[in-house]
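FORM 7B: Structural annotation worksheet

SECTION A. Query
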Amino acid sequence: MIFLEIEPVWTWSHFAFGLTYAIVASLIFLFLVLWLFKPKIRIAPYVCRIGDRGEAVYYSFKIVNVSFFPAHDVKIELHKTRRITMGAGKYNNERERITLVNGEISHLPARQPFWRRKDSDPHCLTVRSIEDISEILEDPNKGISLQVSLRHGLTGLPKVFDQEYGQGTPIKNGRFAPGTKFEKL
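SECTION B. Predicted structure
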């Protein structure tokens, strides 16, 4: 029997191909991680007004974590924005902070799969303000901006979400219903 011994052949072209292949594969993996493993939340498109005559009135905003991973270092800020016209159709925005009752949360749990989901899942969160939001939203030059900043529970990637409420934003009387949908009770 004759055994053929083949010596490995190393060339610069093999090295360049292997290096290029490794870099492309690493970039694809990096973009997939940055795209798939970032925080994902939804913010309610309307505001709920709770309380009536004789009771303390406050306004509620709902946030839902739609990621399958928890969120950490959740910071929620509410700002009153006012347009300042500069002429020629241009304007600047002035922001003033509005107090929220529970604006900083250290941990927001992950969304559960549909077979384990309940109406009172803890990945849904409401925050409230005692300031008169309806008065602010009546003025066409004023608005409200709800800003949520958080970190992904697995990768630690941060993201900031912003929801603007203006003159046409509905203010519904009642509370938000429990669960992931933006319905009111």
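SECTION C. Observations
The first helix runs from residue 12 to 36. The chain has a mean pLDDT of 88.

SECTION D. Sign-off
Analyst initials: ____
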